[in-house]
Amino acid sequence: MKSYDWIVVGGGITGASLSYELAKKGFAVLLLERDATLQNATRFSYGGLAYWSGTTDLTRQLCREGIERHRHLSAELEADTEFRELDLLLTIDAGSDAEKVASNYAHFAIVPQLLSVAEAGELEPLLNKSAIAGALTVRHGHISPTATNKAYCQGFLRLGGTIEFAEVIGFIEEGNRISGVKTAQGIYRCENTVVCAGGWSRSLLKAAGVSVGVYFTRTEILETAPVDLKLRTLVMPAVLKRFELEAESSKIEVDFLWDEPGKELQPPILDSGAIGFKDGSLRIGQLSRTLSDLNAKVDRETSETAIRAGIGKVLPDLAGLPATWHECSVAFSADNLPVVGPIADRPGLHVFSGLSNPLVIVPALAERFANAAGGEEDRAIELLSPHRFIAEGRRKKEEGRRKKEGG
Questions:
Q1: 184 and 321 share one domain
Q2: Which residues pair with 86 in a beta bridge?
Q3: Are 41 and 66 in contact (CB under 8 A)?
Q4: Are residues 376 and 365 in the same domain?
């Protein structure tokens, strides 16, 4: 049986980029993905690269590094990631105080410009101007996540990497050490395993007895075939309800509910927005839920109706377009930062998750992770270590247990 230096669990854009960077460092790497046809957050992502959105020295540095990598990634990977830069339009609901909303963006690395209703309409002619009090705009990167994922995988294979399609169902444990993974098809041994499985990361880590502050939303969108209708901008609301949803559902008071089946931690939210891709298709969304069960069923007809009603207020021409409903799980952390690095009390186990916000930093963090794996010290990897959640996770678990016993 072949043994690898690294096994990367999850073949989305995070797992593919990390596999590529590890292979560049000369490691023998196996990338395991459960679906031959991607049906994950990479497949249904908007593909936005918010390189302007850094708010600390760390996130600003990673955003700068990330956008520079994206600007040259097609040439490096010898395949088109469909990278471009376009205007992001952040709509402010009618009746809101536009100046107050704009002030919430003053701490970003690049501060978005406040537009009047008329200026917003000039920037995006499909916009329903009666639905807004104004908008914010800033230059924004954009890729095709699936094209980028494919480019990374091709680059990884050229470097001698191995890709297999198998669902990881557990880990090989030798005492406290993780020395490989178990799948329905068999076992794979390695020196190091890194979990890059998006929304599935939480359950995989739980199987190893690890709690590192990783959660997930169930996100729903509509996707059209290529259409003649063209958006000039990427449209999203200036006040994103998803961030509040994530904050509320990762509080200490409700943390224990994530480990109970059939729980909905918060009511669903809708952030109405849309993006057009280079092939002419549109992704319209997005509705997000915090459900403890990754396989929980939702009423897709009700969801689709809600998404269409929401986009109809902002971009009415999109509301009636033929489209297909999709859902995926999206990982996030309790402090909105990625969770990246080794699990000290489980030697051989690592995590690389929670990178959807912002997606732009994925190439930079993947490169830094690989450099650290090669022995280089990296302050960013230290700051994003899962250990910031280990003690907190244990405390939350005990508090949740006491609550259940008391209730």
A1: no
A2: 140
A3: no
A4: yes
Of 245, 286, 314, residue with least CA distance to 90: 314
User: Which domain covers residue 281, as residue numbers?
Assistant: 84-142+215-333
Domain match, 368 and 227 both: no
Q: What is the pLDDT of residue 399?
A: 64
pLDDT, tens digit (0-9, with 9 covering 90-100), for 274-328: 999 999 999 999 999 999 998 899 999 999 999 999 999 999 999 999 999 999 9
DSSP letters spanning 177-206 = EEEEEEETTEEEEEEEEEE--GGGHHHHHH
Domain's final residue, options 333, 354, 371: 333
Strands 113-115 and 264-276, sheet pairing: unpaired
Which residue ranges in the chain fall short of pLDDT 50? none
283: Cβ–Cβ under 8 A, 6 or more apart, which residues?
44, 46, 221, 222, 223, 224, 274, 275, 277
Residue that is last in its domain, among 314, 333, 352: 333
Within 10 Å of residue 150's Cβ, how many Cβ atoms? 18
* Rg (the chain; Cα; Å): 21
Q: How far out from the chain centre does Cα 131 lie?
A: 29
Residues 342 and 315 grouped into a single domain: no
Domain shared by 229 and 308, yes or no? yes
Mean pLDDT for the chain?
94
pTM over 0.90: yes
299 and 311 in a single domain? The answer is yes
Same domain, 228 and 296: yes
Determine the pLDDT at residue 403: 63
Question: Hey, is 83 helix, strand or coil?
Answer: coil
Domains in the chain: how many in total? Answer: 2
Cβ atoms of residues 347 and 173 within 8 Å: no
Tokens 């089946």 -> residue: 261
201 in the same domain as 220: no
Q: Is the dihedral of CA 53, 287, 296, 402 positive or negative?
A: positive
Task: List pLDDT tens digits, range 6-33.
Answer: 999 999 999 999 999 999 999 999 999 9
